[in-house]
């Protein structure tokens, strides 16, 4: 049975843009399609994060970055699974190139001041909460850059040979497992990505590029254990259990 298209909420307010990256594949999760489009409790994995970002006050634009082969899937998500319209673009060969293309897509609005902050999120983290997105957005506006993270006291640093390096002391600070969304002052992060492209620098995430090319003091806010990344089949099963246990819904 064909479902009617949902009413589209207008994206007229808010100077932050949410960018959701769906450039992965389904190989490690054991699927034949991009894992972002696998079902999770009646919606695609990607739709969960998109709808959460859309519901956060201050987020006025949603950019969905996908592979060229996934455009049809992305348009279905836009038409059937999200309450707010998406700006769908194709990404690059790497995560960083996809982020750069998203920032260039927004560049005119960043330059005009229509967009002041950008949040970049992995589609493969479907269970990010409204509260965490709001906290990252607030912190990014306060300091210029913010990421969510989970303290990781169980991580040891590998030293030379087969020995562990000394644990980080108080002066080095605690280790954290960094999550998304990662939020930054829009004009600053756009300039940083353009500089990285000129230099051929490739970072591990948005924060690494910011640390390399800006003076932004990247702050971190407490992340959430449920904001895990779906990589393997067991991760998808765990996400289904979390949705069921907590009674969550997309949109």
From TrEMBL:
Superkingdom of the organism of origin: Bacteria
Protein name as catalogued: 2-C-methyl-D-erythritol 4-phosphate cytidylyltransferase
Transmembrane segments: 12-33, 45-66
Pfam family, one: IspD
Gene3D superfamilies: Spore Coat Polysaccharide Biosynthesis Protein SpsA, Chain A
GO biological process, one term: isoprenoid biosynthetic process
Keywords annotated in UniProt: Membrane, Nucleotidyltransferase, Transferase, Transmembrane, Transmembrane helix
Species name: Brachybacterium ginsengisoli
